[in-house]
């Protein structure tokens, strides 16, 4: 099964799901509420747009949940997740693959170099100035915070296996991609952190320094929203 065959199969499955949904007069946002799958992913499935979706194993999970919502329990099994390996040329030179974490490290290195250069330039003509943004931030007077927002959301996620992940912090997309096994990432927010995990059983969560266990079962697609008001109940099934 090639990727082209996989894309064609997704196009066929997506058309079938869309047809059944429209026959039953079910709006797309209702499917999103039922399955907790982002509406843009449902649109991509119906359009057969494989490039707008994560890895095939997570796509199959999305199709399974979508199909169950429409009464098509077995439709996910029609989507193949295994591809035949492409023949490798002896003259081909592998291209470096940049994951978001590598790009982040590159950005940090460039910014650090720029800070050092600027620091040396200023030191020649004026007293020593600490350009460390963390130190400068600590020197600024703290702004008053409303009582309802005095408790922030600090989320630490560790992976026990590979998992696709989407993180939205205070309504802004901060991360979307696949985390490898054994990776730990941290996010903080004033209002909320929304998490969508393609393999919830591989995601271990620490919320405000308190271990709370996994997001769900292995292979399960789960979406959770953590806010200062629902921290104690955030991991209870909705």
Report on this model:
The protein has 238 residues and is α+β, with helices and mostly antiparallel strands. Helices cover 35% and strands 20% of the residues. The chain contains 6 helices and 8 strands, in the order ααααααββββββββ. The protein has helices spanning 3-23, 28-35, 39-47, 56-70, 100-123, 133-139; strands at 153-159, 163-169, 172-179, 184-189, 193-197, 203-207, 210-214, 222-226. The strands form 2 sheets. It has a 4-stranded antiparallel beta sheet, with no helix packed on it. α1 crosses α3 and α1 packs parallel to α4 (56-70). The longest helix has 24 residues, at 100-123. The two termini are 38 Å apart. Mean pLDDT is 80; it is low at 145-150.
Provide a quick synopsis of the model:
The protein is an alpha+beta fold and 238 residues long.
Element layout with pairings:
Layout: H1 3-23, H2 28-35, H3 39-47, H4 56-70, H5 100-123, H6 133-139, E1 153-159, E2 163-169, E3 172-179, E4 184-189, E5 193-197, E6 203-207, E7 210-214, E8 222-226
């Amino acid at each position: 099964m090639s990727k082209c065959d996989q894309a064609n199969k997704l196009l066929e499955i997506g058309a079938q799901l869309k047809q059944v949904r429209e026959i039953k007069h079910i709006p797309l946002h209702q499917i999103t509420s039922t399955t907790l799958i982002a509406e843009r992913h449902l649109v991509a499935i119906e359009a057969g747009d494989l490039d707008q979706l994560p890895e095939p194993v997570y796509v199959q999970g999305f199709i399974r949940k979508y199909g169950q919502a429409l009464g098509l329990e077995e439709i996910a099994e029609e989507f193949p997740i295994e591809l035949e390996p492409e023949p490798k040329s002896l003259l081909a030179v592998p291209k470096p693959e940049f994951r978001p974490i590598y790009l982040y490290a590159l950005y940090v290195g460039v910014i650090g170099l720029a800070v050092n250069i600027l620091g040396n330039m200023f030191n020649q003509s004026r007293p020593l100035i600490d350009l460390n943004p963390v130190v400068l931030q600590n020197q600024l007077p703290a702004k008053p915070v409303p009582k309802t927002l005095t408790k922030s959301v600090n989320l630490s996620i560790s992976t026990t296996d590979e998992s696709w992940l989407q993180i939205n912090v205070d309504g802004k997309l901060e991360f979307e991609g696949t985390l490898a096994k054994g990776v730990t990432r941290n996010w903080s927010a004033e209002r909320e952190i929304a998490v969508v995990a393609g393999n919830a059983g591989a995601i271990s969560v620490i919320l405000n320094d308190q271990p709370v266990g996994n997001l769900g079962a292995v292979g399960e697609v789960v979406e959770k929203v953590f806010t200062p008001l629902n921290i104690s109940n955030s991991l209870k099934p909705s």
